[in-house]
Amino acid sequence: MAVWNLGSINIDNAYRVPHLPGPGETLSATAHQQGLGGKGANMSVAIARGAGRVTHIGAVGGDGAWTVERLMEYGVDTRSIATMRGEATGHANIAVAEDGENQIIIYPGTNGMITEEMIGAALSTASPGDTLVTQNETNGQLYAAQIAKQLGLRVVYAAAPFDAAAVEAVLPFVDLLVLNEVEAEQLQAALGKDLSDLGIDDIVVTLGGDGSRWINVSAGTETHVSAIPVTPVDTTGAGDTFTGFLIAGLDRGLPMAQALSLATQAGALMVTRLGTADVIPDLKDIEDARLT
Ligand code: RIB
């Protein structure tokens, strides 16, 4: 099977700071690094590193040629990424504090310029049983989810950055929803429904240091997956890594419990690394780390 990822591609500028800046505060960074990022690109790299076959659907500007090359080097099929000369690639300014917490500002750039034609052309070569994943950093999410559902793909929605209206719009087409605990509460409050009444069979709620829980509505089960304790260096991209490995595992035919275990190990290892797409671990790193 294969994974199709309609997702953002960002140029990430990460700044190491003593603490996250408050309103009106000017801070001097102790380190700066630029790399490949964006929730979408991070997930594509994680899927590839988790041994999944992934095509990224997205767009970059003239300044983003290197991000496409890098995705290709990392094993992602980049033929459905458009280059829009004269436009700016999406970028993110990320402050990373000593305790690993972050604060992110994103500028969408070309992530908001993806056309229905581009999405349709890419998905026209998908097969039933493939997976579509999308997040909330590009336009075209609803169109992609509708088309993918019609074509018999499994649709995964990672509800980040969270926006209740965006989630509500795609809900009828989603098979697996991934979101964090705060987002889950916000969604339930916005829709006035429990997670188990959303009409989605599988929901994974990430709980940070407490692991994750998987709700399978048709079986009426809720399974808790424990976190793996690590000392955080940088939490940026850990959620994307978790979701990417989860999707890669499911697409390779692993049962949900096994895919969740792999995703948990990948996410934990990612938290110990500084950076985003460029430092996402692969299966060998995970095996070597033997995190428990
Ligand atoms: O989830 C981390 C990502 O959020 C970063 O790579 C940044 O680009 C923003 O999209």
Tell me what you see in this structure.
The protein has a single domain (3-21, 31-285), classed as UDP-N-acetylmuramoyl-L-alanine:D-glutamate ligase. The protein contains 9 helices and 13 strands. It has helices at residues 39-49, 65-73, 116-123, 141-150, 164-170, 181-191, 238-251, 256-271, 283-289, and strands at 3-6, 10-16, 31-37, 54-61, 81-84, 90-96, 102-107, 131-134, 154-158, 176-180, 202-206, 212-216, 221-225. The strands form 2 sheets. Strands 5-4-1-8-9-10-11-12-13 form a 9-stranded mixed β-sheet, sandwiched between helices. The chain has a 4-stranded mixed β-sheet with strand order 3-2-6-7. Helix 4 links the parallel strand 8 (131-134) and strand 9. The longest helix is centred in the last third of the chain and has 16 residues, at 256-271. The structure holds alpha-D-ribofuranose. Residues 8, 10, 12, 37-39, 42, 92, 104, 106, 137, 236-237, 240, 276 line the site of alpha-D-ribofuranose.
Work out the count of structural domains.
Answer: 1
CATH topology value: UDP-N-acetylmuramoyl-L-alanine:D-glutamate ligase
Amino-to-carboxy terminus distance: 30 Å
Bound small molecules, by name, code or SMILES, are: alpha-D-ribofuranose
Overall spatial form: globular
The SSE order reads: EEEHEHEEEHEHEHEHEEEHHH
Detail the poorly predicted runs. none
The profile of the biggest β sheet is:
9 strands, mixed
The radius of gyration computed from the alpha-carbon positions, rounded to a whole number of angstroms, is 18 Å
Alpha-beta classification: alpha/beta
Classify the helix fraction into a percent range.
Answer: 25-40%
In CATH terms, the superfamily is: Ribokinase
The CATH class, by name, is Alpha Beta
Q: What is the name of the CATH architecture?
A: 3-Layer(aba) Sandwich
| Average pLDDT rating | 97
**Hey, roughly how much beta strand do the residues contain?**
15-25%
Would you report the number of β strands? Answer: 13
